[in-house]
Amino acid sequence: xxxxxxHIVPYKDxxxxxxxxxSLTVITVAVTSIELGPYNTAAAMVIASVKAVIVLxxxxxxxxxxxxxxxxxxxxxxxFAAVVLITFFDYLYR
Amino acid sequence: xxxxxxxxxxxxxxxTAAKIGMWLFIFTEILLFGGxxxxxSVYRFRNPVAFHLAHEELSIPIGLLNTVILLVxxxxxxxxxxxxxxxxxxxxxxxxxxxLLLALTFLVNKYFEWGAKFExxxxxxxxxxxxxxxxxxxxxxxxxFMTGLHAVHIIVGMVLLSVSLYKVNNGAxxxxxxxxxxxxxxxxxxxxxxxxxxxxxxxxxx
Lengths: 94, 206
Fold this sequence. Notes:
The structure holds 2 protein chains of 2 kinds.
Chain A: H1 2-5, H2 11-33, H3 39-59, H4 67-92
Helix pairs in contact in A: 2-3
Chain B: H1 15-46, H2 48-55, H3 60-85, H4 89-119, H5 127-131, H6 134-169, H7 179-204
């Protein structure tokens, strides 16, 4: 546990992650500027989720930290996903 | 978390607990903004045409610029934590100052973005907003509320990072004790995380 805590991410890795995040942002803008109908929203949300996971894992150190943080975050995100799913089903089939 | 700047080797501290506390707080923030994202999605689902037309009023270049600013500032915070772990005080200080400068730039952009709307009489409670159609009114109300609440988080993040900067400078935050910087960093990444979803939802999808 203490060696996890002292994991030092090299500067280069942060810049690499940053480059990846900016690229994904540009891709989102490009994808949404073409007409894809309902897939527009889906594509934008999928890319945003990928970016969020990258931020959580690398910038927020979930990948290197004590596992407890990763477990807690996963549980919270699953609860949120369940609420989203239930709400959408409610509105779609009401 | 300790507020004292004095060093006592025997002072009780528990960095893991402090960090778990920060994460628990972040979870409440995720659910707060998550709830608003659900409200936004449901209203968008019910007023697709109005939301589509209203979103064209927002400037994608400004939104994109602010996204890149926040992503870079997140990277510089991450770099400052790596730097303090390596006892590289100079890099830590410079990257924190860059972060604060970028945060300020974000707010200045937001000021001009909102200011332009205010000039056109578009602000919460204005005559123009009241006379808008139901869907447009919902879009702009949610836009002002969600980006406004996000801007409040930027300001809080700037305060936390300024305190961290001060403490890195006077040595209270160092390679053996950097929980405050780490937790402020987590908060800053949360602000970035929220914007990652705000940007496509308001500016991009149609």
